[in-house]
Amino acid sequence: MSSFTSLIGGYDISKLLGDSLRAGVNVQSAAFALGAVGLNLHYGFTGLLNVGMVAFMAAGSYGMAIIFTQGLFGGSILLGILGGLVFATIIALLVGIPALRLRSDYLAITTIAIGEVMRISFRSRRLLDITGGPFGLPSIEDRSADISLADRIGRDWNPFFSVDDPTKTFGFWRLDFDAKTLWLMIIGWTLVVLCSLLVWKLIQSPWGRVIKAIREDEDAARALGKNVFGYKLQSLIIGGCIGALAGIVRTLDSGFVESNQFKPQTTFFIWTVLILGGAASKWGPMLGAFVFWFVLVFVEEALRQVIINADDMVWMGLEANDVGRMRLIMMGIMLAALMIWRPQGILGKKEEALLDAR
Amino acid sequence: MGQFGHVSLSTCTISAMYGRGRAGSSAVRVGALALLTLIVASLFVLFAAVPNAEAQEGSLKGTLRLGRETVEGAEISATDADGNDIGTATTDVDGKWEIPFSEIGTYTVTLDAASLPEGVGFAEGFSESVEIEIDEVRAKAVAFKLDSADVSTTLEIDPLWQRLLSRAVDGVKVGLLMALAAVGLSLIYGVTGLVNFAHSEMVTFGAVMAFAIESLWGGLPFWIVILFTAVVGGVLGFVLEGGLFGPLRRRKMNNISLMIVSIGLAFVLRYSILLFFGSAPQSYEHYRIQSATDIGPFSLPGKDYWIMGVSFILLVAVGLLLQRTKMGTAMRAVADNPPLSQSSGIDVDRTIIAVWIAGSALAAVGGSFLGLTQIVEWQMGEKVLLLIFAAVTLGGLGTAYGAMVGGLAIGFASEMSTFWLDNDLKFLIALIVLILILLFRPQGILGVRERFG
Amino acid sequence: MPANSSESHASDARPTARNAAQMAVRTAQPEPGSVKPDAILTIDNVSRSFGGLKAVDVKRLEVQRGVITAFIGPNGAGKTTFFNLLTRFDDPDTGAWNFNGKPMQDQRSYAIAKAGMVRTFQLTKSLGKMSVMDNMMLGAKNQSGESLSRALLKGSWRKQERRVEAQATDLLGRFNLAHMRDEYAATLSGGQRKLLEMARALMSEPELILLDEPMAGVNPALVQSLLGHVQALRDDGVSVLFIEHDMDVIMGISDWIVVLAEGSVIAEGTPEQVSQNDVVVDAYLGTSFAGATGDGARSSEGDEGNQQ
Ligand SMILES: Nc1ncnc2c1ncn2[C@@H]1O[C@H](COP(=O)(O)OP(=O)(O)OP(=O)(O)O)[C@@H](O)[C@H]1O
Ligand SMILES: [Mg+2]
User: Fold this and answer.
1) Are residues B313 and B186 in the same domain?
2) Is C91 in the pocket of ligand 1 (CB under 6 A)?
3) Taking the alpha carbons of A279, A282, A286, A290 in that order, is the dihedral positive or negative?
4) pTM of the predicted structure, to 2 decimals
5) What value of ipTM does the predicted structure carry?
6) B140 and B40 inside one domain
7) CA C104 to chain centre
């Protein structure tokens, strides 16, 4: 299959499609899907305006990485993950207790603030020994026990890894992955499915009925004796922990944490994933992540190829290194446009979106 | 970059949109897309004309000084983490040197001691090599500390009160700028209920526009630059409300959805600016360095007096406009109770447009001032977003005077905090203020208790 | 609404035999702040100002258990604000009140509802993107599946869920909404939303229900049957406090009337006593009403109120 290439006049269609597909199913995409599942509980079902999902991801990533590098629990990944979730819960409480009693705008302001403050604080030199300051934790390893996170997840605990052939890859065409990536993809997408189902089951229960009622009109829920603040806090924590898992999956994949991984644009990607897939739907986040990454890489790669093939490698004034910026502009337009013309996304219910306008 | 080919891109996008637009679909659709294109196009036009706004690479740079003298002819070299040379430089008459680089990483910068003038060596605790971590491709200052046998380099440290005073003055200045930026955000929230996440990009937009005109026609009197900034800021506000948010609101889109639209818009604006302006920070050519002027105990560059003076006058003017003019009264009335003011004969839509224009113009002017005191870069709005939000919440979401007071307070507090704390921690201060205010007085200092029903 | 229908329901609704609570309340003094034989709610010094305007300033008020108490007053008298305060959707400047002997002024609104004092809103709050059935089922109290720890254990709440659903179906039938049960609540008409909101509040089996203009916008035939429900509620022992502008409705079913004007209680009494009260006639009912009481004639102000 590796001979499957098709060059049409300098354009590499195989690379275009292959890379896009690859991005759609890769670990990164699973991480964004997870983030969107958490955000779906927040925004799609509870109506919470969390515009700082990245804070929860950072809590998960840094929580796990710090516990691991400090050798706090003998380099255990699972305890590291648990630590990340606890950290995310603390963040949820810190944000939720002041902001959830108030109008939804205040949560938006507070969440974006905490995301930025966490990022800026983590890169502070004062935290050099813990978070690695501006350098981050380039390789997450427990020096005392001499184990690294990457080895742990990529070798020791990886059923696909074989010592005889450590570079063995799985798959075909441009969709072949090394043992670690494959393993993390399976873990990542399994988590996506499990969390989607968890959220869905919760939403189908009487608890979920209250949650949806809060989204619709929290005063009505209050008038019926529901402790709205408590429910919102629960939702914030659960969604936040799912967000932390997203960060954790991403960190397991990259093998390092660094504050720049947690810029606000990550939150905004997750929003786009959710709106694209369809807020308040069961599988919207999952589908949204796939489509999002596919489209993102497709457009980017196409643009790149067009530029490379153009005279002087300049196309309509764009050069190769403008492509990354164009993609953020396009994502911005995509989020706004979706919100305006297709707020229900791919899988959301159209009727529900229309009810807003009544 | 640099051709007018950009323009054709945007015009053909517009025509494509009109061509494809479904016959029955509302004008909003076309309007909104045309608007986004317009913004992008206007940036194209401006930046196509600005000569070499961007150095595509980052650079390590510095000015080598001995006491107050600069050192010429010293040789400096840089190597990357693997020990590969990435460049050398010799300091010029002004002691300046620069070595470009293109990738992030760790660099070692070395000053050749042999190339220094006789009798000059490194100050105590400083060696000839400096290791530097680069996490962003941009200009990065590298400092060497020199010492010599015959030049006394003992720094005269100002007495504590003097330093506190100068920090306080800085605090007032930043506070005034934050107030300028925050008023619009708060007023827009007041009259429409929208938390406009793109507001911080107005700040960047203003700074960048001021930079653009200033580098096109260098040496313009600064008040013309300010006027121009205010006008383009106002136009952007007008276009955003008239072409995007207004029509969407009339389609009964709720404020939560509009807020998400504004987040998308913020990204479009921010990265468009990055695309055209580039990632390298710039400063206004003609106002870069000014010698200090002493007035009483204050010793500030002349521009700082101007900035503070003009900001103060602008804020007072806003206050007077709100209090004394018909339009100002209308703004306050709409902010207070939109349906009621509608029924009492106020043209709500016109008032909202006016608020957008005024608010955006103020933010743009604030941005140009911010660029003047610090640097102009594509992320500057994003960086103050937090402070602006904290300011608006502190003062009371929706109140103009609250935003002013909040802006002053947050700007001042965050600037003062750097006296004792790391620079980065000023954002932490803002967050703490935000959380405390939400816990204990969510309506803000000047806000009224949230109403029910 | 046509005058003849209101005439007929006014006479139908008048109770033929009074129960003990109804008899008891008639013994209370017809004056503001009078003591009731068996008060479910006692209110002291509740006040709330908006800027310079004193919207509510109630010195003392007792609400009798097991009867229908009507709350009337001109537009802007402060009736809705008073409800908001009692249910803590708004914060009073001063005041204390006891519900079933328990102080409520420091409780949160949900806790007040949980305690058995449930309200509806003048501007209806239907949960638009939820089905009518879900709206109803939300109202039921003490649902174990509403706690997070049990939400995933379907077995632990399936039975209760079925019970709640049966109860909801029954109520929907009584409120003429059975055919809408699977529709989104947002698709209901204004009047239907009023009905849904009232039915939903009843799902929680309140001890005291506070209804803010429940009949506004509801068609006359249905008003008729609603009145029947309200009376049936009372007969089941539920205390009802309701705001209404329609004098026929008020005269028809209330056992006690409290008149509010400019934030203060200016009169209390049985329908007969209130309609003869000069202060009330001047402040609210207007002279045309005074002579016509009992004939089922309607005040013009009643109509205006219904527009809200
Ligand atoms: N949130 C608020 N802010 C300012 N004033 C208010 C507010 N709510 C109510 N008011 C004022 O308080 C007074 C009482 O209003 P309220 O809604 O309680 O009247 P009401 O008796 O329910 O009238 P209606 O019969 O028209 O419903 C009115 O003058 C109103 O303008
Ligand atoms: Mg009312």
Assistant:
1) yes
2) no
3) negative
4) 0.83
5) 0.87
6) no
7) 18
Judged against a pLDDT cut of 60, whether residue A294 lies above it is answered with yes
- Write down the mean pLDDT value for chain B: 78
Determine, yes or no, domain membership for C193: no
- Same domain membership, residue B89 and residue B30: no
Cα separation, A115 vs A265, whole angstroms: 11
Measure C90 CA to nearest chain B CA, in Å. 6
A149, A68 contact by CB (below 8 A): yes
Q: Count the helices and strands in chain C (H runs, E runs).
A: 14, 10
C84 lines ligand 1 (CB under 6 A): no
Q: Which long-range contacts (CB under 8 A, 24 or more apart) does C162-171 make?
A: C164/C137, C164/C140, C164/C203, C165/C133, C165/C137, C167/C140, C167/C203, C168/C133, C168/C136, C168/C137, C168/C139, C168/C140, C168/C203, C171/C136, C171/C199, C171/C202, C171/C203
- State the residue range of the domain holding C161: 127-187
In a shared domain, residues B281 and B310: yes
B145 in the same domain as B91: yes
C63 lines ligand 1 (CB under 6 A): no
CA of A226 to the centre of ligand 2 (A): 24
A151 Cβ neighbours under 8 A, 6+ residues apart: none
Query: Which of B157, B192, B222 is the C-terminal boundary of a domain?
Result: B157
The Cα-based distances of A105 to A46, B8, B193, C89 in angstroms read: 14, 40, 9, 19
Q: Are residues C210 and C116 in the same domain?
A: yes
**pLDDT tens-digit series, residues A199-230:** 999 999 999 999 999 999 999 999 999 999 99
- The confidence score (pLDDT) of residue A1 equals 40
Nearest to A224 among C161, C184, C200 (CB): C200
Distance CA C72, CA C246 (A): 9
Q: Identify which of A97, A321, A335 has the shortest CB distance to residue B263.
A: A335
User: Final residue of a domain: which of B124, B157, B190?
Assistant: B157
Is residue B400 assigned to a domain?
Answer: yes
Same domain for B111 and B255? no
Nearest CA to ligand 1 atom 25: C75
Is the residue at C157 inside a domain? yes
Which residue lies with its CA nearest to atom 4 of ligand 1?
Answer: C50
Query: Which one of B2, B265, B434 has the shortest CB-CB distance to A113?
Result: B434
B252-291 burial: b if 16+ Cβ within 10 Å, else e: ebebbbbbbbbbbbbbbbbbbbbbbbbbbbbbbeebeeee
- Note down the domain range covering B275: 11-52+161-440
Give dist(CA C257, CA C239) in Å, integer: 13
Residues B169 and B44 in one domain: yes
Residue to mutate among B131, B197, B269, B271, with most A CBs inside 10 A, is B271
Q: CATH number of the domain that B146 lies in?
A: 2.60.40.10
Same domain for B74 and B21? no
